[in-house]
Design brief:
This protein is α/β, with parallel strands linked by helices and 424 residues long. It is 30% helix and 12% strand. It contains 14 helices and twelve strands.
């Protein structure tokens, strides 16, 4: 089955996934169901669920924007998913927690709210360079574009942060900061810009009283001041909210405030229980109603300069049920969770996770390399979507699958049913 687009380069083709091993095909950047040179109309028809990473525009044009970024990835369904798949993403992201030191003690934190004692640790500076080298070897071997998100804790609290960033810059790797507002002073921001930092992400988890309860007294105002400082200096600002029972009614107003402040990107993700605090979970009906409020808000603000990314995978069935997008019938997965597919997480002690949102250790980078870890049996288990309860027979399996990290936080089992899914 060869791709019909006339602009394809030599050897470009769409290969039947059932005959391709995951590792072999993942390494072949030109081998994809639809290539980047495929006309947008064709891409949109096959990848409606790219809404999960697309900008929100007026509802009337909803069907058009899904294809604007082309085919992100596609892989086959079935019990052999761990060994046979297609991944056509040209990038491979590293979320790197270089320290667990932090000024805040957020209610939903994966570090401090697990009920386990915490020992402060910083990623060793020399081993950090080795890790960057290992990451580059992996990306170069499989022809993937590297991109690092430096986070923590607060990455700016790492005593060797500038040495790490300098080495990343020397290797020409794109990087961003996921941190707090407290250390993003003018000198620090200007230094980050000079070293090539592409964005600075912070969190707003409700209006002032709610946010400060969740994170730290004074955190809300500190974040607003940091947004103003960052934008005035020319740094791209991304704001993330974690939606829970405590704050979900306030997030439409948060989105409006972020737009008024000129942030570049605003998005939200569901709360993932960290210590059996499942009372903060929304019910499926409540969550669907919440998505409706957020969609209305995003639509009203669509002509502003803020991009609203649809990070939540349940946007796909939500928008499809409203008749705003088409979902093609396909044997290939065109969207949904990236777990064990196109990114990886490294913690401050070198442990490697399939996803940071739940306990998913698959190895340690000090003891191995990214190639061995990414293709080991434990990681392959997370790629077996046929094992996802509640999703296996769902019409949206190839486009959604929700967030099973929330299932893991709620029940202790990643493969159990998605807690906020309203589909029978």
């Amino acid at each position: 089955m060869r791709c019909s687009a006339s602009a394809h380069g030599p050897g470009c083709k769409a290969v039947p996934a059932k005959n391709i091993r995951f590792k072999e095909f993942w390494a072949c950047r030109n081998a994809r169901l639809l290539c980047s040179c495929t006309p947008i109309a064709e891409q949109a028809a096959a990848t409606a669920a790219v809404a999960a990473t697309a900008n929100v525009i007026p509802v009337a044009a909803a069907n058009d924007f899904h294809g604007t970024r082309g085919l992100a990835r596609a892989w086959p369904r079935g019990s052999n998913f761990g060994r046979k798949a297609i991944l056509s993403s040209s990038s491979f992201g590293l979320q790197w927690h270089i320290t667990n030191r932090c000024d805040q003690r957020c209610e939903h934190c994966y570090i401090f709210q697990t009920g386990k004692p915490v020992t402060f640790r910083d990623f060793d500076a020399f081993q950090a360079k080795e890790t960057v080298d290992k990451y580059l070897v992996f990306c170069e071997k499989y022809d993937k574009k590297p991109g690092i998100s430096l986070t923590g804790g607060d990455p700016l609290l790492h005593p060797g942060i500038w040495d790490i960033i300098q080495y990343i810059r020397e290797k020409n790797i794109t990087f961003c900061i996921l941190g707090n507002p407290f250390h993003a002073d003018e000198e620090t921001v200007c230094r980050l810009l000079r070293l090539g930092c592409v964005s600075y992400q912070m969190s707003i988890d409700g209006l002032e009283a709610t946010h400060d309860v969740i994170r730290k007294p004074g955190s809300f105002q500190a974040t607003l001041k940091a947004i103003s400082r960052l934008t005035s200096l020319g740094m791209k600002v991304n704001i993330m909210s974690t939606a829970s029972r405590l704050n979900y009614l306030e997030l439409p107003e948060v989105a409006r405030l972020m737009t008024d402040m000129g942030v570049n990107v605003y998005t939200f993700a569901r709360y993932c229980p960290t210590h059996q605090d499942i009372d903060q979970n929304l019910t499926p009906d409540e969550y669907k109603e919440f998505l409706g409020r957020m969609w209305q808000t995003f639509s009203e603000l669509a002509d502003k300069n803020t991009t609203f990314t649809l990070k939540e995978h349940l946007w796909t069935p939500f928008l499809h049920e409203l008749g705003l997008i088409d979902i093609p019938t396909t044997d290939y997965v065109a969207g949904g969770c990236n777990c064990a597919i196109s990114h990886i997480t490294v913690l401050e002690d070198g442990d490697v996770l399939a996803c940071r949102r739940f306990d998913s250790r698959v190895g340690n980078i000090h003891e191995s390399d990214f190639d061995t870890i990414f293709f080991n049996e434990t990681m392959c288990r997370y790629r077996d979507i046929s094992s996802l309860s509640g999703c296996g027979n769902c019409a949206y399996l190839n486009h959604c699958r929700g967030c099973h990290a929330v299932a893991a936080g709620t029940t202790g089992n990643f493969f159990t049913r998605n807690p906020q899914c309203w589909l029978s």
